[in-house]
Every structure is written in structure tokens, then in C-alpha cells.
């Protein structure tokens, strides 16, 4: 579904990805594992078009994302949950969820909202609350909901369990577990595997922007 082939990416003249390769097959949950600064976020931002390729190729199925403008990528069915959540503080929870839907003409807003609230019913109760009034954990949930709303083919979840209370971490694990068998391809970046190893079909380890190992989990 997503293919990153020998990607080289630089930030401010510092090469962060150095020939990194990853393949996310349809319907699988894959963990992208690496220490802080290893290149996990850079890989996801490259898929979303936030960072340009110096070399290599990024594809979604048969679509060359390198030839697709960044503002058109969400509409291809890619949902992205950044580590810093990236919510618009003055918008409500529901407005934040709807942001990518408003620019994805092929998706029915009401239908996608019903899907999201079916998976995360706790957000329905706070849908009119502004994002700036949410706790950090609630903001994580809203960011996940926004990714789910538009991610009809692929979800990119950047450190979803980082910095949240154990109970919320467990809840996020349950939500991700519900996606198994849905046909979605899910890439989860993490510094460790404490939260999700049992969920994953494969692990890809990245260090200093390059592959270390790749294989099926036990």
C-alpha cells in the first residue's frame, strides 16, 4: 500500500533519511521503531509531502507520491496523526476532525463522522468543545479521530502512546486493535514496543535514518 524506496531526505542541509526503505502491505499493522532522532517522524512527513525527497521514491499503490502535491495526499485516503497532535486550538473537536474531510470531495462528512464516533464514542460528548480546552490525552484522541476520518486506506500514527497516562494508552491500543481486519494499513512509530507489540504484524527498525532490521513479530 505504502512503499518508501531508498529515500534520502535532508532537513536544513542535514541528511536525516539515508536510503531508508519501508513497505506497508494492505491490511497490515507495522511498527516503525527507533530512538528519538532516528528518522521516524521524517519518514512520515515525507509520505505526507511535508519534506521533499533528495532521492528515492514514495508510492501509494500505483501512485507516485513524489509527483502528487502535498495538499492532495490526504484525499488519497491517507490519515496522519502527528506526534504534536497539530490541532487548531480555536476550532471545536468536530471541526478539527472535519478539516481534512472538507478538502476530500469523495468522502461524505456525516458518514465519516459516524464512523469515527462509532470507534471513539467518548469524542461525541465533547464534539463542541474547543481543542484548546482539552487535556493532552483528549487532544491525542481528537488527533487520532481526525486521522481516522480521512484515512480510508492508510493511517500514519506518530508516537500515539507517547506522553499519555497508562489508562489512555490502553484505550488507544484498544482503538488501534479494532482496526485489525478492517482493510486499513497502519504504520505506528514508537521509541519502544511496550504498548503495541501484540498488535503488530511486522516491525521495521530505523537508526540514523537507515534500516536496521525488518521482520515478522513472534
TrEMBL record:
<dbReference type="GO" id="GO:0005524">
    <property type="term" value="F:ATP binding"/>
</dbReference>
<dbReference type="InterPro" id="IPR003439">
    <property type="entry name" value="ABC_transporter-like_ATP-bd"/>
</dbReference>
<keyword id="KW-0029">Amino-acid transport</keyword>
<feature type="domain" description="ABC transporter">
    <location>
        <begin position="2"/>
        <end position="218"/>
    </location>
</feature>
<protein>
    <submittedName>
        <fullName>ATP-binding cassette domain-containing protein</fullName>
    </submittedName>
</protein>
<comment type="similarity">
    <text>Belongs to the ABC transporter superfamily.</text>
</comment>
<keyword id="KW-0547">Nucleotide-binding</keyword>
<dbReference type="InterPro" id="IPR052156">
    <property type="entry name" value="BCAA_Transport_ATP-bd_LivF"/>
</dbReference>
<dbReference type="GO" id="GO:0015807">
    <property type="term" value="P:L-amino acid transport"/>
</dbReference>
<keyword id="KW-1003">Cell membrane</keyword>
<dbReference type="InterPro" id="IPR017871">
    <property type="entry name" value="ABC_transporter-like_CS"/>
</dbReference>
<dbReference type="Pfam" id="PF00005">
    <property type="entry name" value="ABC_tran"/>
</dbReference>
<keyword id="KW-0067">ATP-binding</keyword>
<keyword id="KW-0813">Transport</keyword>
<dbReference type="GO" id="GO:0016887">
    <property type="term" value="F:ATP hydrolysis activity"/>
</dbReference>
<dbReference type="GO" id="GO:0015658">
    <property type="term" value="F:branched-chain amino acid transmembrane transporter activity"/>
</dbReference>
<dbReference type="InterPro" id="IPR003593">
    <property type="entry name" value="AAA+_ATPase"/>
</dbReference>
<dbReference type="InterPro" id="IPR027417">
    <property type="entry name" value="P-loop_NTPase"/>
</dbReference>
<keyword id="KW-0472">Membrane</keyword>
Amino acid at each position: 500500500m505504502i512503499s518508501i524506496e531508498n529515500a534520502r531526505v535532508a532537513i536544513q542541509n542535514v541528511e536525516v533519511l539515508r536510503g531508508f526503505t519501508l513497505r506497508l502491505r494492505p491490511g497490515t499493522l507495522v511498527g516503525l521503531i527507533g530512538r528519538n532522532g532516528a528518522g521516524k517522524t521524517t519518514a512520515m512527513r515525507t509520505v505526507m509531502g511535508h519534506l521533499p525527497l533528495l532521492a528515492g521514491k514514495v508510492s501509494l499503490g500505483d501512485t507516485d507520491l513524489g509527483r502528487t502535491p502535498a495538499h492532495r495526499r490526504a484525499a488519497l485516503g491517507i490519515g496522519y496523526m502527528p506526534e504534536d497532535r497539530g490541532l487548531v486550538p480555536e476550532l471545536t473537536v468536530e471541526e478539527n476532525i472535519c478539516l481534512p474531510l472538507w478538502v476530500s470531495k469523495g468522502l461524505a462528512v456525516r458518514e465519516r463522522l459516524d464512523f469515527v464516533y462509532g470507534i471513539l464514542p467518548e469524542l461525541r460528548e465533547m464534539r463542541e468543545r474547543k481543542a484548546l480546552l482539552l487535556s493532552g490525552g483528549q487532544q491525542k484522541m481528537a488527533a487520532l479521530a481526525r486521522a481516522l476520518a480521512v484515512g480510508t486506506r492508510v493511517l500514519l500514527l506518530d508516537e500515539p502512546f507517547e506522553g499519555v497516562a497508562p489508562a489512555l494508552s490502553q484505550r488507544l491500543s484498544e482503538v488501534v486493535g479494532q482496526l485489525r481486519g478492517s482493510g486499513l494499513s497502519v504504520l505506528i512509530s514508537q521509541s519502544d514496543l511496550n504498548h503495541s507489540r501484540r498488535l503488530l504484524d511486522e516491525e521495521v527498525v530505523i537508526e540514523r535514518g537507515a534500516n536496521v532490521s525488518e521482520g515478522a513479530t513472534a
